[in-house]
Fold:
Amino acid sequence: MGCRNTLGNWAGAMLLGFATLAIAPQLFGGGGDEGVDILPKLRGDGGAGGSDGPGAGGNAIPHGVQVGYIAVHGKNAALDANWFWALPGLRLPGHARQDLFLGDVGKEPDSRGETVLDILTKGKRKLMYGEYLPRSGQIAGPEFLTLNGRFEIEDRFDDQRLELSGRDKQAVYWTILVGQRSTTKDSIQASFSRIDSTLTGTEISGRIDLDQFRDEMVALYGGTGADIALLLSAPSKRGTDECWAAFNVDDQSEIWDVEIKVP
Structure:
């Protein structure tokens, strides 16, 4: 996959680039959401992961559970189905809308299911989602969800595929910020009190595997306490799409701070 190939070349580039670059990227805003809340239906097909849309492979949901649930909670927790799977956002391969439920870990709709991804909503925006399901008779990969909103997401077992994705099949610009955040609230861009290094490039596939990205950054900056932010951006008819994902290199839990801005 293109995003994996690109990541494999980043480590060497960073060692050179971060020593000389201190470029503040031009960033843009956007947003808006509306819709209704839903409750999930039990999905007992065992699930799959590793989707690239049509033609992709997969991995089984962990721990032998029949359903890998996605818990959604927070002060303004809500679900909104008004999003298209091919639009920018956080892509969750192997998951369908039936995996989403409103509530905390331990409050799953069915005892056969286990929460594998835990989402804490932030701000006033609803969590928007779009669902890709292979059509009947179509040769294609497993389903996936694309999420839009402002939230934190934790991979509780460090075995779920997470992808930051631009518009489907369109190239994106990526920017990596290394520095220190003074807060985890509000905009990720504004949360940085100090930016030590910046690196930029392009990704033809339009997607970055966050697990691979995290591994690369921890290998470079582990033990420094650095905060890392990844931005995918691309021009659109109404402005600029932005997909942000940030984390701390010394956080033992796999928690991502996510912010999707689409004009």
Notes: The chain is about 10% helix and 40% strand. The longest strand covers residues 192-203.
